[in-house]
Structures are given as C-alpha cells and as structure tokens.
Amino acid sequence: MDESQLKQYVxxxxxxxxxxxxxxxxxxxxxxxxxxxxRLRIKDTAYECGMLPIGEGSTRLSIKFYLVAMxxxxxxxxxxxxxxxxxxxxxxxxxxxxxxxxxxxSFLGILFVxxxxxxxxxxxxxxx
Length: 128
Known about the structure:
The protein has helices at 3-7, 10-33, 63-93, 97-120. 66% of the residues lie in helices and 0% in strands. The relative contact order is 0.05. With 128 residues, it is mainly alpha-helical. The protein contains 4 helices and no strands. The protein is flat and about 70 Å long.
C-alpha cells in the first residue's frame, strides 16, 4: 500500500481515539464528581408510577405474544424484499420479463400460503 493511502486513515484513527478518550473521560469525571454517601434502600427500589412494586418484576408472556411477533417479522421482511424488486422491475422487465415476474409471484405465493396457515391456526385472533 502506498504511504499516501495510509495517511488517509490517520483522521479515522484520531476520531476513534477521541471517541474512546471521551467515553472513558466522562466515566472518570462522573466517578470523581459524583455524589458519595450512604444510599437508602427506598432510593434503590424500582419506581412504578408512585406505587411500591408488588410481585415479580418479569411475568411470563403468553405464547400468543411470540406468535404474533414472529408473524410481524415474517410480513415485515416481505416488504424489505419487495422494495428492491420494485426498484429494478422496469430495468429487468426489458431483459427477463417472465423471470422477474415469476420469481415475485412465487415469493408472494409462499407468503400467501403462510398467511392462510396463520389464519387457519387462528394466529390473528386476539381473544383466545
């Protein structure tokens, strides 16, 4: 590598060093300047809208919650794959019209089968 190319990395290295120095500097400053003293137990309890916390902090969630989350991820990722396809659609339409259209129809078909399966299993029913 040419020496002039290595000189281009010097600002990046300096920025990294400044970021690390700032992070550790603010931590050291907060330790030096921060309040010291005896802490009361009531100060360390969780604040819950002015009420004292009662019961466990983490409750178990229904499997329905995880099912809905997975379905959201599934159909959200669909949009991520549709956007690049829509951007290059006209360009690829000139060369491989059947291939580009067929691939998207098969992709949407698989997603539709997944949607029908979720409907059959009543995954979108919030009451059960």
